[in-house]
């Protein structure tokens, strides 16, 4: 059997699909925690408004270590499914012979990008579970400071920022045009549609701001601006209508979190 055939056979397993779906509620919980952190920042409390901040919050709770291992396992399962989609195309569970299809390269690249994201988060969750995790902004600022010492490093930051901004813009487009409904096995309904629109648009706007902040970091010679999502949230918080804008951002992340729970059952696999 070919490698593609083996991957296709694995994705055809109901058990494998159920395990992969377990990553969606995990992702939902992380988004709800980020929303909670953003609300706290809006009212003057400290916190880190990104995925590592959410993991750190989870680690501080009773039973945090066990919860973090569950998060790591769920995200790893989802990452493995995305890697399978990288090999044989999107939604392989819908086709008994998915490995024989001609799948557009852009779809497989998108799946690969999501796989890397979920793998990174899974690894970070495992680090927190082992007690060796570090806040994301701390790592990002240190890395950015080193990159800014060279012309090539500055270019890398600009490219990374542009990619993040592009992802944010795509999420806004996907939410505004309701393209996310194509990812569902049902027609959506009012509740899922509203959650999907608010979630994609809200998170997309914040990611676009995060990308713009990373792009600006080399020009401002300020590594703290390259801390990604957390830096964008705190920059917005310091504007004239910062609290209101942050509360809107929190609503967006919370909506995406709830939408992720819907994906647990209704996502096309």
UniProtKB/TrEMBL annotation:
The keyword Membrane applies. The chain crosses the membrane at residues 29-47, 67-90, 111-132, 152-173, 194-220, 240-259. The keyword Transmembrane applies. It holds the Pfam family DUF1206. Residues 23-87, 111-177, 199-266 form the DUF1206 domain. Keywords: Membrane, Transmembrane, Transmembrane helix. It comes from the Bacteria. Signal peptide: none annotated. This is Membrane protein. It comes from Mycolicibacterium poriferae.
């Amino acid at each position: 059997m070919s490698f593609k055939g083996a991957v296709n056979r694995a994705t055809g397993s109901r058990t494998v699909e159920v395990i992969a779906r377990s990553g969606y509620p995990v992702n939902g919980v992380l988004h709800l925690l980020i929303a909670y952190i953003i609300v706290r920042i809006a009212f003057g409390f400290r916190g880190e408004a990104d995925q590592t901040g959410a993991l750190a919050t989870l680690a501080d709770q009773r039973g945090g270590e066990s919860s973090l291992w569950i998060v790591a396992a769920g995200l790893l399962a989802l990452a493995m499914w995305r890697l399978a989609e990288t090999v044989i195309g999107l939604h392989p569970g819908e086709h008994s012979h998915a490995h024989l299809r001609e799948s557009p390269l852009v779809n497989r690249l998108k799946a690969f990008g999501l796989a890397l994201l979920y793998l990174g988060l899974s690894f970070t969750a495992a680090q927190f579970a082992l007690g060796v995790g570090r806040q994301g902004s701390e790592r990002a600022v240190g890395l950015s400071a080193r990159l800014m010492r060279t012309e090539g490093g500055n270019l890398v930051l600009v490219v990374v920022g542009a990619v993040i901004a592009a992802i944010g813009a795509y999420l806004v487009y996907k939410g505004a045009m309701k393209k996310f409904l194509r990812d569902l096995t049902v027609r959506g309904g009012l509740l899922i549609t509203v959650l999907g629109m608010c979630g994609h648009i809200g998170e997309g706007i914040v990611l676009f701001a995060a990308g713009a902040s990373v792009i600006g970091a080399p020009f401002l010679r300020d590594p703290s601006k390259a801390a990604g999502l957390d830096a964008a949230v705190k920059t917005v918080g310091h504007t004239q209508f910062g609290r209101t804008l942050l509360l809107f951002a929190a609503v967006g992340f919370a909506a995406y979190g709830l939408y992720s729970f819907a994906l647990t059952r209704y996502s096309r696999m």
